[in-house]
Design a protein that fits this description.
Elements (H helix, E strand, L loop, with lengths): L2 H35 L2 E2 L6 E2 L8 H9 L4 H8 L1 H34 L5 H9 L6 H12 L4 H8 L13 H24 L4 H9 L4 H12 L1 H16 L3 H7 L6 H11 L3 H33 L1
Antiparallel strand pairs: 1-2
Length: 304
Amino acid sequence: MSGRRIFTKPARLAAVAPYVWMLLFFLVPFGFVVKISLSQTAIAQPPYTPVFDLAAGWTALRAAFDALSIDNFKLILGDHLYVVSYLRSLTVAAVSTAILLGIGYPIAYAMARLPRRWQPLAMMLVIVPFWTSFLIRIYAWINILQHDGLLNQLLLALHIVSKPVVWLSTDTAMYVGIVYSYLPFMVLPLYATLAKLPHSLSEAAADLGASPGRAFWLVTFPLSLPGIGAGVLLCFIPIVGEFVIPDLLAGSRSPMIGQTLWLEFFTNRDWPVASALAVLLLGVLLLPLLIYERAQRRQLEGKS
């Protein structure tokens, strides 16, 4: 038996495995969510109707399908509370991602310019926060930003303010928590892209008369766009659905969609509306992924 035949079957199984995983752990559960989003709320267990009962026969199953409707989606699109929650989530995610890019790019660029022996240490310092529980880090920021916390004590000691500043339950505290928590997700893909760029490109641009700033904008920045796109997606998408940070640091006066989902699922127990919110959220988040995929395809077509 040839070596090619020996490795053909394992290779095929390895290629099929990711699709099976996606089918079992994404598409099937998402199908349940879509079905619940088309159901109606009921005071029962589970708290929605209709419930598919395969043992009841085809007639009952067909009647259950006929009972499904898009009323929950109409309710969401026509309710000011839900629309505002979506818009606020998108706004917070966009602003936070812009801040993360503004902070993360210089950090990643500096890391890529370090001598090779220092780059692993710099990378370790970036990922050190992951060694601590996410929830503990957010509670630490609560202690820092509270009325008599470390930040106000420092500002008072430096005579920058005359009285303690209110930080908690504000958008400022929320943005601080988000930027702190998601900064590694921006820095690491940017560093991976910038570290691969040869320094000879900048040297060649300098030899041709370009200033350092012009060489950066005309050479380095365009070549780092794949890393920028990856970092933006890694930050923007989870921030849109963020629940813990806004709930603990910003309060609930103007909830994001993650807080609204929690309210509908666990307080109101309105699973159909909550499922419809989740389905719409996935649809909204598919848009930046499609834009990124199309940009990558155009870049590959341009190279070819």
